[in-house]
Amino acid sequence: MLRALRIGTQCMTCRDFARKGALCAALLVAVGSGVFACGDAGGGPAVAEPLPRDTVRVEVEPRVPEPHVIDPGALPEPFATESTHSDPIVDPGETEVHLRAPPGFRIELWAGGLRGPRRALELDNGDLLVAESFGLRVSLLRDASGDGRPDVRYSIVEGETRPFGLVVHDGWLYAGFEDAVVRARFRVGDTQLSSDPEIVTRLTGGGHWTRDLVLSDDGETLFVGVGSQSNYNGKGNEPPRRALILAMDPDGSNERVYASGLRNPAALALHPITGSLWTAVSERDGLGDDLPPDFATSVREGGFYGWPYAYIGPHPEPRLAEQRPDLVAISLVPDVLLQPHLTPLGMAFYNGDQFPEEYRGDLFVASHGSYNRATRIGYEVVRIPMDDTGHPGPGYTDFIDGWRGSGGTRRVTGRPTGLLELADGSLLVLDGGAGRLWRVSYGAPGS
């Protein structure tokens, strides 16, 4: 099935046609399984759309973070509890959101009215690029009024595919879509792209559709996270190049498998000290409420992390009848285990100086929250403390929560999906469920 991606730029071919008086709405360039469409032939300035006003009130309650440590050698047996399914109901019309954070941290609504924000990048001029996955667009948010918050939006990429990962490097904007990674020329300060898009690499769609991107510190390697198409490959027909992290040159050449056996490596990040690649992974469903743990881990080049034949080291997948014992035996144990079904979708290392010193270098993870567990968990941001050498401590702590609500209700007020450290050292939390951006800052308790 052909898909369309509308790029906010002007095509040379359309411009030529316009000079001749021809009517040209767009230039279609067929590339493999996708159809990419350039923007309006008129070539006029991009139109600024006011961001909708969100009047939700936020109440922040101080809380002492709760530690969580999961021992990979003491996991419960498979099917110890019955697997359940209970999708949450997000109500963006709530007039109040009650959140909890450690003492001294403040949380404010920074922007609203977005459609499934999953990833964001802050540009050198203060503009913000946001992948609105369910708006099927990459938007540029700008503070036109000068009040410190974005208030207008420009759509620079629109279409019928869901954007996720974003990278800006060397005059290129890269975007990870379900079936392709694409790039186009982009200048900071502009509100539209300055070239037609080109394919970096084609991918297969279906199943886990998130495609996160991160570029190595030296700018030489582009990493792409590609989740599985199935839960545990029960039918044995999983397509190739799934459940892994790809590495390639920025132009798509020299592609190779960096690590595999990762069911859904939805979040990628580089450690600010070591430069090592980290990922956060959502593990499989159907083995019970408390199995298997999700995880965050540094990624070993060439490493195999178990999927689908094993989980959390050499624990065999019981539904695959002891297939591939050779791969089960070499399955790696991740660095930090998270509660099962927490569903980590975003991560960011904190490298700023606004938070207390003990937070510097720590890893924050955005939990989208459970949908297949009897007791709902997640819907929060958690913190993984790291030592001075870039190694994690035992376990993690809650950092910000409250979106889940209480009492076991299906109604939640938000679902964190992404994180971004802003230039001033505050932390931006992308709420893909309610379409909001929350800014987390710090001031000494009582100030």
CATH architecture of the largest domain: 6 Propeller
User: End-to-end distance, in Å?
Assistant: 57 Å
CATH class of the largest domain: Mainly Beta
Low-confidence stretches: 1-43
Measured by DSSP, the beta-strand proportion falls in 35-45%
Largest beta-sheet characterization = 8 strands, mixed
What quaternary form is this? single chain
What is the CATH fold-level name of the largest domain? Neuraminidase
What does this structure look like?
The structure is a single chain. The chain has 447 residues and is mainly beta. The chain folds into 2 domains: 1-44, no CATH class; 50-107 and 208-442, 6 Propeller (Neuraminidase), CATH 2.120.10. It has helices spanning 12-19, 325-330, and strands spanning 3-7, 28-31, 34-38, 49-50, 57-62, 67-68, 89-90, 96-101, 105-111, 117-122, 128-132, 137-142, 152-159, 163-169, 172-177, 180-185, 198-202, 213-215, 222-226, 244-248, 256-260, 265-270, 277-281, 294-298, 310-311, 315-316, 336-338, 344-349, 363-367, 380-384, 396-400, 411-412, 416-421, 427-431, 436-442. Strands 1, 2, 3, 4, 10, 11, 12 and 13 form an 8-stranded mixed sheet that branches. The chain has a 5-stranded antiparallel sheet with strand order 6-31-30-29-28, with no helix packed on it. Strands 9-35-34-33 form a 4-stranded antiparallel sheet, with no helix packed on it.
Topology:
Layout: E1 3-7, H1 12-19, E2 28-31, E3 34-38, E4 49-50, E5 57-62, E6 67-68, E7 89-90, E8 96-101, E9 105-111, E10 117-122, E11 128-132, E12 137-142, E13 152-159, E14 163-169, E15 172-177, E16 180-185, E17 198-202, E18 213-215, E19 222-226, E20 244-248, E21 256-260, E22 265-270, E23 277-281, E24 294-298, E25 310-311, E26 315-316, H2 325-330, E27 336-338, E28 344-349, E29 363-367, E30 380-384, E31 396-400, E32 411-412, E33 416-421, E34 427-431, E35 436-442
Parallel strand pairs: 1-3, 5-8, 7-32
Antiparallel strand pairs: 1-13, 2-3, 4-13, 6-31, 9-35, 10-11, 11-12, 12-13, 14-15, 15-16, 16-17, 18-19, 19-20, 20-21, 22-23, 23-24, 24-27, 25-26, 28-29, 29-30, 30-31, 33-34, 34-35
